[in-house]
Amino acid sequence: xxxxxxxxxxxxxxxxxxxxxxxxxxxxxxxxxxxxxxxxxxxxxxxxxxxxxxxxxxxxxxxxxxxxxxxxxxxxxxxxxxxxxxxxxxxxxxxxxxxxxxxxxxxxxxxxxxxxxxxxxxxxxxxxxxxxxxxxxxxxxxxxxxxxxxxxxxxxxxxxxxxxxxxxxxxxxxxxxxxxxxxxxxxxxxxxxxxxxxxxxxxxxxxxxxxxxxxxxxxxxxxxxxxxxxxxxxxxxxxxxxxxxxxxxxxxxxxxxxxxxxxxxxxxxxxxxxxxxxxxxxxxxxxxxxxxxxxxxxxxxxxxxxxxxxxxxxxxxxxxxxxxxxxxxxxxxxxxxxxxxx
Length: 342
Ligand SMILES: Nc1ncnc2c1ncn2[C@@H]1O[C@H](COP(=O)(O)OP(=O)(O)OP(=O)(O)O)[C@@H](O)[C@H]1O
Known about the structure:
Layout: E1 2-13, E2 16-27, E3 31-35, H1 42-50, E4 57-62, E5 65-69, E6 72-73, E7 81-84, H2 96-100, H3 109-122, H4 138-151, E8 156-160, H5 168-184, E9 188-193, H6 196-202, E10 205-210, E11 213-219, H7 220-225, H8 230-236, E12 240-248, E13 251-254, E14 257-260, E15 272-277, E16 283-286, E17 292-299, E18 304-310, E19 313-319, E20 329-333
Parallel strand pairs: 3-9, 3-10, 7-8, 8-9
Antiparallel strand pairs: 1-2, 1-4, 4-5, 5-6, 10-11, 12-13, 12-15, 13-14, 16-20, 17-18, 17-20, 18-19
Helix pairs in contact: 3-4
The protein binds adenosine-5'-triphosphate.
Protein name: ABC transporter ATP-binding protein
Keywords: ATP-binding, Cell membrane, Ion transport, Iron, Iron transport, Membrane, Nucleotide-binding, Transport
Domain ABC transporter: 4-236
């Protein structure tokens, strides 16, 4: 059964439509990233799931139980949802232990103490229960907020930009650590971020937002390799757009010659389009009579970025050949793959 089902959710602030009819399903134990630029409605959806923001249409349900729908509104505290914020929102006057147990009700003293030990162990803060938040590092404070959210065993965890205050050097380690904790407990989570790199590391699936709607939802690999529109392609990474003409259902012509598609193209013969080529999908070989010329380069250690002029276009290429110089003539080739043409 799906943990979270969002159907046709609309929401507005003072007459301004913010969410324009969103659909999203989250399976038990799955982590989904709501990804998109600032102001596109990610936090508004998170708040609507939490019951902190009204919806004007549609429905939100957890395990089949309706939380927000026509005539239904379950208050935030009864939704079985844990939340983790950017600023951790710990109570400064409470110890780590009291922070963690804050939302835990209806347990005996023995059960409370077991729950606390379990949580401290889970987030690797054993022995620090008596400290106050200001006596902890940022990463430790974030782990307390995770323990607090998980201590009352929520059905669903919501995380709003939880890593943006963490030092970039420890951020990805921390993300992997928290991801592991959620996976260990099979907790479903919705994670808001504007960073594709964070989404790639932390989430199982991505839901890419654009102006109050979800443009594409799926595995990161699917969105990266088979974006349904240019906005998705560009949000997820660098790309070149090569003008091509469709020559057959599996072949296009271009300034680089014929390029084969391993997937049938649903485009009219002789129609033109822009072929998406990620920099690593272009193979580069030095050739004295080559059709391209290196006009810019950036050495990055194990690889080099080259900008290669071919005809009227300049393409960005990533190569393990790191010693090629400006002005070098090269040949570019593309191996057969499922072509994405806009
Ligand atoms: N309390 C509010 N009153 C009026 N408008 C609001 C309010 N909160 C958000 N908005 C508007 O709703 C839109 C979506 O905001 P939201 O915070 O959901 O975006 P976001 O994608 O989470 O952005 P960010 O990444 O910057 O947090 C924005 O245009 C914002 O100005």
